[in-house]
Design brief:
144 residues, mainly alpha, 81% helix
Length: 144
């Protein structure tokens, strides 16, 4: 009887892990479908659900931030981009994150913060002409 109880515990915990694996994957599929259908608020909700239960080495911060940005929730997008940028290991990824952070700040009319984000992006990728242009726009807005 004791072996049977132990076997039941092992099987139920294995099934629990499988359900968690399926659950975050299901949320991810729903998020991507909502994003594709341009329902960015719903996509963000599903990405956040997937992130909560996904394995620790899986990161949906870029997708969450992009969904928030497209949903015009620039404050939320800024927060996610800021959190995600610190985890970026390559200069290219960090430059992209800082560029997007600057875009979110521009949308909130926080031109000084945007300029600093664009400068940081350019430190990581000095050849990015789009970031250079956005920096000039932020500087122009500061002067106005």
């Amino acid at each position: 009887m004791r072996k049977f109880v132990i076997l039941l515990i092992v099987l139920s915990s294995t099934m629990s892990f499988a359900q968690d694996d399926d659950a975050w994957r299901d949320s991810l599929l729903l998020a991507r479908k909502a994003y594709q259908n341009k329902d960015y608020t719903k996509a963000l909700k599903h990405y956040e659900s997937a992130q909560k239960i996904a394995p620790e080495d899986i990161d949906f911060s870029d997708e969450m931030a992009q969904s928030a940005y497209r949903a015009r929730d620039f404050e939320r997008a800024e927060k996610i981009y800021r959190q995600g940028s610190s985890a970026k290991l390559s200069k290219s990824e960090r430059a992209d994150a800082m560029h997007n952070l600057g875009n979110s700040q521009m949308r909130q009319k926080d031109y000084e913060a945007a300029a600093e984000s664009y400068k940081e992006a350019l430190r990581n990728n000095p050849n990015d002409e789009e970031t250079r242009y956005n920096l000039s726009e932020a500087v122009r807005k500061i002067k106005e």
